[in-house]
Amino acid sequence: MNRWLNLGKWAHAYLLAGPETGGQEAAADHFAAGILCEHDEQRPCGQCASCRRLAHGNHPGFVRVRPEGSHVKLEQVQRLQQRFYLRAAEGQHRVCVVHGADRMTPEAANAFLKFLEDPVPGVVGILTANRLEGVLPTVRSRCQTVLFSHAGPDILREYWIRRGTGEEKARLFAYLNVAPEDEGNGGAAGPESASDADRPSRCVRFAEIAEWVVEWVQAVEGRQGNPMLDLLIRVGREKWSETECEWLLDVLACWYRDVLYTSLGLSDEVVFVDHRRELSSQAAHHASITAVTGKLQDVIAAKRRLQVHANPQLALECMALRLQGE
Ligand SMILES: [Zn+2]
């Protein structure tokens, strides 16, 4: 896309499609700014009058449309068209960014199609979508499509923070690749509503497991209570699924990785930022770095056993015994 910006020539419409954390919305903004920028090189420059107006949200040649409720509606597309049928001054570009091209009502999609079939000179449309298959094929065929792939951990972490998730949980989600689609239905379910009819979403369940694992590992490392019994009650009586057992191991491996990082003086890199004190005390408590890597290996070995369909409970019990050094 930067190549197009440098060439200074644009198609009438672009479709940027990818998962919610694919970065296509930010790319749409960047591209729009680049088209409207008054500089000849390094567009967008961020300095010119156009770039500044855009940053302040009052650029006359820029319109953004987002789904109202769950859909982009016909009236929204009509308003867009009315605005752009007024001719711009010679050589001036205008841009409309439409988010949710896969969430247009059929009427809105057909109206937008007319806009693509009979483009107004100087107007560039930039559409974004999460699901390419949700975009009307006739719309798709009139756009230059750019596909965005899955986000890296930094973008995932930023996504979860924007969603109001705390820093530590956002880091954990990003590290273990918990994606927005894991929010699923029932994401708003409270702790009382975990009945079959209203099961918590994957990410809510993942967070519950993570919280429990962090408590549990304190008991293991601090030799408090009876961690083995706790494990039996949780996993055995609650009949955790294989996936849930794997999540447990993933969180646990992440914990011991953090202990290792703390031992190595890499505290800035840890995932469990709210537990730095516990990590430091465990790092100090282990005789050597080898002792910590040994525990990490025990967790990884248990995960491998699960992957070859060993009895999950047995695999977890063996691991717990080794972690406790018995
Ligand atoms: Zn500029």
How would you explain this protein's 3D organization?
The chain is α/β, with parallel strands linked by helices and 326 residues long. The protein has 2 domains: 146 residues, Rossmann fold (3-Layer(aba) Sandwich); 140 residues, Zinc Finger, Delta Prime, domain 3 (Up-down Bundle). Helix content is 52%, strand content 8%. The chain contains 14 helices and 5 strands. It has a 5-stranded parallel beta sheet, with helices on both faces. About 4% of the residues have low confidence. It binds zinc ion (ZN). Zinc ion (ZN) binds next to helix 3.
Overall 3D shape: elongated
CATH uppermost class of the largest domain: Alpha Beta
Helix run count: 14
CATH topology of the largest domain: Rossmann fold
* CA radius of gyration: 26 Å
Features:
5 strands; binds zinc ion; 326 residues; Zinc Finger, Delta Prime, domain 3; Rossmann fold; single chain; 2 domains; 52% helix
Secondary-structure blueprint:
Elements (H helix, E strand, L loop, with lengths): L1 H6 L5 E5 L6 H13 L12 H7 L6 E4 L8 H12 L8 E6 L6 H12 L5 E7 L7 H4 L3 E4 L5 H10 L4 H9 L26 H21 L4 H11 L4 H22 L12 H10 L3 H19 L4 H12 L3
Parallel strand pairs: 1-4, 1-5, 2-3, 3-4
Helix pairs in contact: 4-5, 7-8, 9-11, 10-14, 11-12, 11-13, 13-14
The protein binds zinc ion.
Could you give a quick summary of the protein structure above?
This protein has 326 residues and is an alpha/beta fold.
